[in-house]
Fold this sequence. Notes:
The chain is an all-alpha fold. It has one domain (5-26, 34-133). It contains five helices and no strands. The longest helix has 30 residues, at 36-65. The protein is elongated and about 45 Å long. It starts with a helix and ends with a helix. 22% of the residues are buried. Residues 1-5 and 130-134 have low confidence and may be disordered.
Amino acid sequence: MLKFIPIKEYYDKAQWYLKKIDEISDLIMNKTILSQDEKRQAQAMMKTLKDELKKDCEIGNSVRKMNKMTLDERQLFVYILEANEKLNVRTNSHPIRSNWSAYLGDCRNKFEDYVEYLLSRSNIIGVFLRSHTD
């Protein structure tokens, strides 16, 4: 049985980002007021998300410089860079007043696009991620 672990790893990474984005969105979505605890929790979650994006951008930059990226890895790096640019919000800002939902939505769209890209690639090269998407 052929096993293309890198695609699964890239898929899992994109899913991790989507999960973190959804966790923050679930906390702040459709609210006009947040308690201090909710605000602090959202800020901590946003910091974790942004720190991971920054770390992955740095890793991607160093690997890219070595010209050792696979096609799927390059694509993930591009989506991570774009998502990082879309998530241009301060972690100490107020989640509601600073409209984090819009930034999170833009960031989420990037990772959804990447998952779609991977699923289309998996069909082309014969790798199926169906067990992860069902």
